[in-house]
Amino acid sequence: MKLIEIEFGSNLYQEMLVLRDEMLRKPIGLEHSEADLQKEPGYRHFGILKNDEMIACLMMVPHTNELVQIRQMAVLDKLQGSGYGKLIMTGVEEILSKEGRIKRIFLNARGTAIGFYAKLGYTGVGDKFTEVGIPHLRMEKGIL
Ligand SMILES: CC(C)(COP(=O)(O)OP(=O)(O)OC[C@H]1O[C@@H](n2cnc3c(N)ncnc32)[C@H](O)[C@@H]1OP(=O)(O)O)[C@@H](O)C(=O)NCCC(=O)NCCS
User: Fold this and answer.
1) Which of 136, 46, 37 is nearest to 94 (CA)?
2) What string of pLDDT tens digits covers the 144 residues of the chain?
3) From the CA of 114, how far away is ligand 1's center (Å)?
4) 138 contact partners, CB below 8 Å, separation of at least 6
5) Ligand 1 pocket, residues with Cβ under 6 angstroms
6) Which fold has domain 2-107?
7) Are strands 123-131 and 104-110 parallel, antiparallel or unpaired?
8) DSSP assignment string, 120-141
């Protein structure tokens, strides 16, 4: 099992899109569109491979020199609750910490995932809001 950075447009990137669609989009009746993907060459993508299968992924969107947003965080359904979400989040935080530039991460947590991010030290900011028809909360964490 390994945490890898995924190159935009690669075979692994295509596998990651499938995981994202299955775990994030389809449950709420959506699929990704070409317009959604147009900005992704400028983002960083990470995944966990287990026996060569993509089982967890997330996308990192740059905002300022010191701030990034985590988006599209997903773990394969049959392995949810097994520690892989925590593994990819903490692994990516560690990469940012070693790189030394980014000081803060924010994300828009789905209501159902707020407890997951809270356990990882993310703090809610502001009021809940609705996006893609479901409640979300902005959450943030500093990088040491
Ligand atoms: C939310 C998600 C990313 C969490 O990943 P995961 O691999 O299932 O979570 P982990 O097993 O690593 O859990 C880590 C800790 O968070 C807790 N946790 C996990 N999901 C949780 C949730 N939805 N609410 C509250 N706590 C949660 C676990 O109990 C565990 O606690 P512990 O460290 O005390 O044992 C994953 O379940 C998922 O992909 N869900 C569907 C898609 C989704 O909602 N993505 C997030 C969009 S913002």
Assistant:
1) 46
2) 899 999 999 999 999 999 999 999 999 998 888 888 999 999 999 999 999 999 999 999 999 999 999 999 999 999 999 999 999 999 999 999 999 999 999 999 999 999 999 999 999 999 999 999 999 999 999 998
3) 9
4) 106, 107, 108, 109, 124, 125, 126, 129
5) 23-24, 73-75, 80-86, 109-110, 112-113, 115-116, 119
6) Aminopeptidase (3.40.630)
7) unpaired
8) TT-EEEEEEEEETTEEEEEEEE
